[in-house]
TrEMBL record:
This is Uncharacterized protein.
């Protein structure tokens, strides 16, 4: 008797109980906006970090 793969049984049961809907396929514009906001946010955080690093280097480079 072959072994029963319980993961497949659970996945099939769950898909019958709660059918999945592809929200990202229906709303591609929202995904694009999320990506643009993420890229701009990462750029701003990178700019802030580079400013902090350059300020710290300038502060330690001054002769005491």
């Amino acid at each position: 008797m072959p072994a029963i793969n319980h993961a497949l049984v659970a996945r099939d049961t769950f898909s019958h109980i709660l059918p999945r809907d592809n929200w990202a396929n229906r709303e591609p514009g929202v995904i694009v906006v999320f990506c643009i906001v993420f890229v701009v946010g990462c750029g701003l955080i990178g700019l802030w970090v580079s400013k902090c690093i350059s300020a710290r280097r300038a502060k330690t480079a001054l002769p005491a």
